[in-house]
């Protein structure tokens, strides 16, 4: 992957934990990507309504809404942004529910540099 920023690449990180926000943001900055941060579900929904994103990293344990509710509302608006779930849950039922909502990838936390690189290469640098 090159260190040059791709044109018109917008990434949204939906996570209410500051440490996770910093970790994902730092990994994305390594490849010169900028990420917008949404700390709540309502904020995420407002942001996807106003901005076109190429990819969303979504935590499931958001304080005001769970990640599945946020994804469902995004999909109900007719927005089909690729979404990658970042979560501590590894149960097959959670993975199936994510797939049923059209989630493109699922990563059990912690997000590593290798995970981040794979996601960027697979969904943005294709």
Descriptive report:
This protein has 126 residues and is of the alpha/beta class. It has one domain: Rossmann fold, CATH 3.40.50.2300. It is 42% helix and 17% strand. The chain has 5 helices and 5 strands; from the N terminus they run βαβαβαβαβα. A 5-stranded parallel sheet has the order 2-1-3-4-5, with helices on both faces. Strand 1, helix 1 and strand 2 form a beta-alpha-beta unit. Helix 2 runs parallel beside helix 3. The chain is globular and about 30 Å long. The termini are close together.
Brief summary of the model shown:
This protein is 42% helix and 17% strand. The protein has 126 residues and is of the alpha/beta class.
Detail the topology: elements first, then pairings.
Elements: E1 11-14, H1 18-30, E2 35-38, H2 41-50, E3 55-59, H3 67-76, E4 83-87, H4 92-100, E5 105-108, H5 113-123
Q: How confident overall, as mean pLDDT?
A: 88
End-to-end separation in angstroms reads 10 Å
Overall radius of gyration: 13 Å
CATH architecture assignment name: 3-Layer(aba) Sandwich
Helix segment tally? 5
- The poorly predicted ranges are 2-7
| Strand-pairing-aware structural class | alpha/beta
Widest sheet: strand ordering: 2-1-3-4-5
What name is given to the CATH topology? Rossmann fold
What's the quaternary structure here?
single chain
Question: Largest sheet at a glance?
Answer: 5 strands, parallel
Keywords:
126 residues; alpha/beta; Rossmann fold; five-stranded parallel β-sheet; 5 strands; disordered N terminus
């Amino acid at each position: 992957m090159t260190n040059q920023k791709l044109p018109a690449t917008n990434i949204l990180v939906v996570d209410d934990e500051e440490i996770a926000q910093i970790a994902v943001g730092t990994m994305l900055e390594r490849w010169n990507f900028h990420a917008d941060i949404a700390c709540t579900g309502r904020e995420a929904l407002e942001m996807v309504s106003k901005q076109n994103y190429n990819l969303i990293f979504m935590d499931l344990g958001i304080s005001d809404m769970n990640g599945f509710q946020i994804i469902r509302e995004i999909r109900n608006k007719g927005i089909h942004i690729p979404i990658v779930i970042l979560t501590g849950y590894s149960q097959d039922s959670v993975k199936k529910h994510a797939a049923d909502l059209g989630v493109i990838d699922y990563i059990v936390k912690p997000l590593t540099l290798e995970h981040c690189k794979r996601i960027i290469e697979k969904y943005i640098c294709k």
